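Course assignment 3, question 2. Fill in each field.
Student: A.L.
Task: Predict the tertiary structure for the chain below.
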Amino acid sequence: MPRRGRHRTTGPVRIVAAVAALLVTGGIVVAAGSASAHPRADSEDGSGLVSTLTRSLGNGDEEEQSPDDSDSDSEDQDAGDESAESGSDTEDQDTDRQADDQGDDQNDDQAEDQPDDRPSGDDGGQDGGQDAGQDAGQDAGQDAGQEEEQFKGRDEAAPPDAEDFVDIREVEPGSGGGRGGRFSEAGTFRVDCGTNANGAHRNSDNIVLGPGKRNAAQHVHDYVGTTATTFSSSDEELRNASTTCTDGDRSTYYWPVIRDLNGTGPDVFDDGGGLDGNFGSVLPATSVDLTFHGNPTEDVTAAPDGLRLATGDAKAATNGDANANARWTCTGFEDRTTTRYPLCPGGSSLVRILDFPSCWDGQNTDSDDHRSHIAFPEEDGSCAAGTQPVPALRMTLTYDRPDGRAFALDSFPDQQHAPQTDHASSINLMPEALMDRAVSCINEGRTC
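Answer field:
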């Protein structure tokens, strides 16, 4: 369901970024994760650094200046103001002089005899000041308008609510099934692509759902597989890059990061990071399981090269449940899942389960909405008429999370880190021989 009654910061998110950076660079924040180093709420409140900052800012309506441009912008503004003031003062003096000299024919004649194009210090100062002020205002307005159009909702960012969390022991067993998880009981194929624990491949692009647009996600993704994935990568570029996967799999697999809100990330001033309301240090996944499953009603066929896949809705908090497919649980409690952040007991790890659609239309590797070419199975696991099953990908991501509620999924600013916005994407670029092997393993009921 769409989210209602969410708390919101009252000033632009970049102010929060500026305050956070000042705390870091000024020595207030001295060590990530330290209770003495970071402003934070009680661990059961879970708001952490970002909550403290947003609450302390109040009605911050001022726009943050770029550190690189602040001096030059100020100088330009001062120069424009001084020229405008000079022009205004001169204009007043001219008015007084005309009043004093009214009726003086000689002065009038001399004024009329002056060439129209002669240099005028008075007019130059006035016009220069006005032009500089107008140009600066227009440029600032255009830049702000373009940024607002491209990166919307930044003034709506906020940390997650307490209601976004639930003790996993209070979740009923068998609940939270999600879509796409009805598989055949035998036959799986697993690809090993590592975990991106060192953060070597992260960005805020989304080549599947937002191709061609930088920072399309407005939050950070972790990647495994081909190492060249950006907003503008071609399939050929992805195929020619190195890969973190074994067996030459150059597919790309990616998902939004989870952050420790008591930590401090390196991207506090970056798009996708602090500028879009995503604060804290990134929690690396301790394990990434990428397993392809079979269909319970018929054999699977090979997925085509370049097939785009997406699961979940990054804007489910406002869009509703139509495309949402978030499932959260804890190790030792896998028989129960939830769309909320689970609070796991001691010794239990946080788990995300992301099932992908697997009923392909047999023709297209992409579609206008980047979803219609491949659908989720019906309730019984079968594919609807006109579609055929391909190997069904399940991503299972595991994390060691901080105590209490001090963690959150990266999100669009206006989604306010809602757990139901969890999502992931992939582009199939397996070599043909590897895909054929996967199909054989699955259809023959083997575990590979």
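Instructor remarks: Residues 173 and 336 are 4 Å apart (CA to CA). The first helix runs from residue 13 to 25.
Grade: pending
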